[in-house]
Write a structure and sequence with these properties.
This protein is α/β, with parallel strands linked by helices. 37% of the residues lie in helices and 16% in strands. It contains 13 helices and 16 strands. The strands form 4 sheets. An 8-stranded mixed sheet has the order 4-11-10-9-8-5-6-7, with helices on both faces. The protein has a 4-stranded antiparallel sheet with strand order 12-13-16-15, with helices on one face. Strands 1-2 form a two-stranded antiparallel ribbon. A hairpin with an 8-residue loop joins strand 15 and strand 16. Helix 3 packs across helix 10 and helix 5 runs parallel beside helix 6. The radius of gyration is 22 Å and the shape is globular. It starts with 8 loop residues before the first strand and ends with a helix. 44% of the residues are buried.
Length: 416
């Protein structure tokens, strides 16, 4: 056998990555994995970079959640395979949890997944062909673009406006809908990385555009219980009387167990526009057989027996950290924090004309080197002129971190 020697040719094997593998790009991993992270050895390292509520030790799952898992293990009857879309009881629990005025779900509208990211990927993979257009928010969660590009879609970004607490630029979104035949628009509320929570009227405005241009919506509502008062969460599906809406959720953020990897999506199709799309979407779940059977078995107990007080404890800490962050950083030169309304994050806008850095990555690396504070460059979310601060640390850590950021900004701003 003749074989021209190359990087992909070994003893006659011609092995190449697939087109999908070549398109695979996760900006968070691409940026963070190549950062120069060398903290100041004289200062404790404070990690404000990751949205994992379990890391601070103060945001813990309730005893009800833990006992539900323990019971599932001890019962000894949840060790085998479950249906690919999830068992009936667990799916009905999700349907009941999401049903509200304006939309009533049944188990037949629900698919359980291995985390919310899996649900997002399943929806995109089920609806989008190579070359199709989808619209995602900017700033926005990186997985939207990662998943779409792997499947060969063309991603169009619609801007969120920081001066309006990251509301959607409706004129820009409408221009995309006029110029391109969109297969899907993704709406994230409450937002990662922005921390915004949309009013009912703003969601209605988005819905009106989607209906006008016949574009289905994927609603990422994984943070729907983490809303800071006086703001209120409205599921966008409850506003639809025509347009299909695919809503994603999961246990990770609200219930403080991201490592348990149980998510879901629900299909709201009020005028039966989807035809045979829905059964084919459900068939796609057979590619990977769903979440962990033990967590799925515990799901009805978790969803049916956790009251608002559990979420209020998380909200209290997150809001306190958001207020601390904004009050301490708001009057500094060169940076502007945008007050969060929910979720677990605060975006801080950077004016590079007043700092000796050209990118948020340079800013972040120098902040780590000098102050041992790790924020995430918002280029991970397609927004190059900001950093994201995760609020899921103790308030004492947030106070120390913000004090260091304040001293750092005053020092480097003066030096320019």
């Amino acid at each position: 056998m003749n074989c021209e020697i190359s990087a992909n040719c070994y003893d006659g094997f011609h092995i190449k990555p697939s087109d999908a593998a070549l398109r695979m790009y996760n900006p968070i991993r691409a940026i963070v994995d190549h950062m120069d992270i060398y903290p100041n050895p004289d200062k404790t390292f404070i990690r404000l970079s990751i949205g994992d509520p379990s890391i601070c030790g103060l945001l813990n799952p309730s005893t009800t959640i833990v006992n539900a898992i323990r019971d599932a293990v001890e019962q000894g009857c949840h060790n085998g395979y479950k249906p690919a879309i999830g068992g009936m009881e667990a799916r009905q629990a999700v349907a009941n949890y999401h049903s509200t005025d304006g939309v009533i779900y049944t188990s037949q509208d629900v698919v359980l997944t291995s985390g919310c990211s899996h649900a997002i990927d399943l929806i995109i993979h089920s609806l989008v062909n190579p070359g199709d257009y989808i619209a995602i928010p900017n700033p926005g969660f990186a997985i939207y673009k990662t998943s779409a590009c792997v499947h060969g879609a063309t991603v169009l970004e619609y801007p969120l406006v920081p001066e309006q607490h990251w509301q959607v630029d409706l004129e820009h979104l409408e221009s995309l809908m006029k110029s391109y035949k969109l297969k899907l628009i993704i709406v994230n509320n409450p937002s990662n990385p922005c921390g915004s929570v949309y009013s009912k009227q703003h969601l209605q405005d988005i819905m009106d555009l989607a209906t006008k241009f016949y574009v289905p919506i994927m609603a990422d509502e994984i943070y729907n219980k983490l809303v800071f008062p006086p703001h209120k969460f409205y599921p966008i599906a409850s506003l639809s009387t025509d347009t299909p809406v695919f809503t994603t959720g999961g246990l990770a953020k609200n219930w403080l167990v991201p490592g348990w990897r149980l998510g879901w999506y629900l299909v709201h199709d009020p005028k039966q526009r989807l035809g045979d799309v829905k059964p084919r979407m459900f068939a796609m779940s057979q590619r990977i057989l769903g979440p962990c059977s033990l967590v799925e078995a515990a799901l009805p107990t978790i969803l049916n027996n956790i009251d608002q007080s559990f979420f209020n404890d998380s909200i209290q800490l997150l809001k306190k950290n958001a207020d601390t962050c904004c009050s301490m950083l708001n009057d500094l030169p060169a940076i502007t924090p945008i007050q969060p309304q929910g979720a677990m994050y605060c975006l801080v806008i950077i004016d590079f004309t007043k700092l000796p850095y050209k990118t948020a990555l340079e800013f972040t690396e120098d902040l780590i080197r000098k102050e041992s504070v790790f924020c995430l460059p918002a280029s991970c979310f397609f927004y190059p002129s900001a950093v994201r601060i995760a609020l899921c640390v103790s308030n004492d850590e947030m106070l120390v971190a913000c004090k260091r950021i304040e001293e750092f900004i005053r020092r480097v701003a003066i030096e320019t």
